[in-house]
C-alpha cells in the first residue's frame, strides 16, 4: 500500500516526532489542539489493548467491507472527519505526560496481542487482528501527524 503511515512499533521515532511538536502548534485543518490529538490517540489505543471493551453495531458483512476499504486500500482518512466531541479539559497535565501515556498504551497494545488469536473490535470494521491494527493505527496516526505537519501526505 502506498498511503502515509506511522510505524507505531518504532517508539523512539514516534516519541521524538511528538516531542518536536509545540503544544501551541495550530492544526493545518480541524479544531484539535496538539495535546488533544495526542490524548485522542491514547484513547484510541486503549480500545485495542484490552483496557476498554469496544463493540461494532454494523452487520458483519458491512463491517468487513468497510475494513477492506479503509484498512486494505490506499484510501486516506478524510480531513475534517469528526466523530465524537473534543473534551474541554486535558486528561494529562502536559504534552509530555500525554506522550508518555501514549507510549505506555502502545506497550500494553503489544502485550495484549501476545495472546494467541487475540483480536480487538473496531467500532466500524469489526474484529481485527494485530496486523490489521498495526495498519489501521499507522494510517490513523499518520492522519493526525499530517494534521499537525509532523509528516507530509
Count of alpha and pi helical runs: 5
Major sheet: size, sense and barrel closure? Answer: 2 strands, antiparallel
Low-pLDDT runs of 5+ residues are none
- The fold-level CATH name is Four Helix Bundle (Hemerythrin (Met), subunit A)
Alpha carbon gap, first and last residue: 14 Å
User: Any idea what the CATH architecture is?
Assistant: Up-down Bundle
Helix content: 40-55%
C-alpha geometry: globular
Order of helices and strands: HHHHEEH
- Overall average residue pLDDT: 94
- Structural class computed from helices and strand pairing: mainly alpha
Tally the structural domains: 1
Which strand order spans the largest sheet, edge to edge or round the barrel?
A: 1-2
Strand elements, count: 2
Strand content: under 5%
CATH class: Mainly Alpha
Folded structure, characterized:
This protein has 153 residues and is mostly helical. It has a single domain (11-147), classed as Four Helix Bundle (Hemerythrin (Met), subunit A). The protein contains five helices and two strands, in the order H-H-H-H-E-E-H. It has helices at 11-19, 34-46, 60-70, 95-112, 130-147, and strands spanning 120-122, 126-128. A two-stranded antiparallel sheet has the order 1-2. It is globular, with a radius of gyration of 15 Å. It starts with 10 loop residues before the first helix and ends in a 6-residue tail after the last helix. 26% of the residues are buried. The mean pLDDT is 94.
Quick rundown:
The chain is mainly alpha-helical and 153 residues long.
